[in-house]
Amino acid sequence: MDETPWWRDAVVYEIYVRSFADASGDGTGDLAGIRGRLPYLADLGVDAIWLTPFYPSPMADGGYDVADYRDVDPVFGSLADFDDLVTDAHAHGLRLMVDIVPNHSSSAHPWFQKALAAPRGSQERDRYMFRDGRAPLGPGEAEGEPNNWLSTFGGPAWTRVPDGQWYLHLFAPEQPDFNWRNPEVREEFLDILRFWLDRGVDGFRIDVAMGLIKAEGLPDTGPGFRSASPMWSRPEVHDIYREWRRVLDSYPGTRVAIGEVWTDSAEDLARYVRPDELHQSFNFAWLEAPWSATAFRKVIDDTLRAVAAPTWVLSNHDVVRHRTRYGEGSLDPSAGLARARAALLGMLALPGSAYLYQGEELGLPEVTDLPPQARQDPVFKRSNGELPGRDGCRVPLPWSGTAPPYGFGDGGSWLPQPDDWAELTVERQAADTSSTLSFYRRALALRRDLRGTLPDAIEWVPAPGDALFFRRGRLTCAINCGEGPVRLPPHERVLLSSGPLDGVDLPADTAVWLTDR
Ligand code: GLC
Hints:
The protein is α/β, with parallel strands linked by helices.
């Protein structure tokens, strides 16, 4: 019997709930919409789904501003819908993970509202990061922010309240940071974890997992980012996840936690992934790498050397879709999609688990021409439109038909869908064996067949030009990031290729799985 725990080599599909499927017809995706599409996900061949936040929220950051951690926002459904979704997902053989947002709440959260109403120095304020401002630097100067920290979304990380104190928000002002040195906050989140575990969830994706603890005294930041910063990856954050792990391990079955951890190095990332801590953390290194065999090879080597339970991811709801990223700088308009398909074979051939983002199986591009009035991301709003923000990868999925909303729901879609997505719908692609959807289905089915039969280690095979070849037991994966064709490595049989092969040659922007038996 295969003793590998399910999460170690799982393929997890990220559902951006607002944009997946809308059953209620109000233009926003919902839990009932997901439930209706579980057969699609089971056929696709993924092992688990991760739902982005569906909790009551004013939606200042698409739900990553949570006002109540133990309920469902009416726009997404009810707790009863959630329970039905868990039951049905399990019946379809799919595990279900939810997003937990512990770094900050919404400013509409009752705790923050109480903190605003309470005086400085009160217990209510101590649940968040309230501080006095810096004394004026000179006569006539205003009191300054408590330190020089900047919000990830632009502008200062501090907002002043009427009595003159300031509160910290590493993201939008509507997302005040919790004080994780306060035991009440820690207890509250252990209870929230239990609330969802009791409802049958298989795990959590932890939002901004490296941010919870800030350096004592909140010193100014220097030029360093991520690992060198007083805001991120402080050593004490690991104690929190040790506590969380004890809760997860106290439940039947295998319940898991994956951290959203942005770091500078695989070593730093590895510190989160320990037997008594998180099961996994996202490894964003590949997603940050350009289309280059040298870059991919370094990412793979660094990851496999440092991280015990590796993960791979090419796209998510925060970054430009990889089809579009890989196409940038190429004169060939088909390069982006060809490369995106090739990268999938690389990712799925590696040991560890893979995270897919909804719509990549359809080869969706980033939508770059959303009208400004449609955009909702705080990144766009806070930069006064200078930065496009992340709405372009969040456009609702095209399911069927020839015109918007392409079967997403009966009531339009909260972000407009392009007029030329008819050929990208699930309906159209399911009927076409050469489509990206059919390719994803084949790749995921093959990966499932190979599961448990391949070693955890890979071996590099010498490759010409800007190509990369690696072997994992009887599977060889070859990716050609160069401009011209390269000769395929030795093999018996081609299992799958991301695009047409040219006899014994692997064309540019193409990957292949080969076997010698
Ligand atoms: C994470 C989420 C992102 C959100 C941010 C603040 O990075 O993935 O969407 O805006 O945290 O919660």
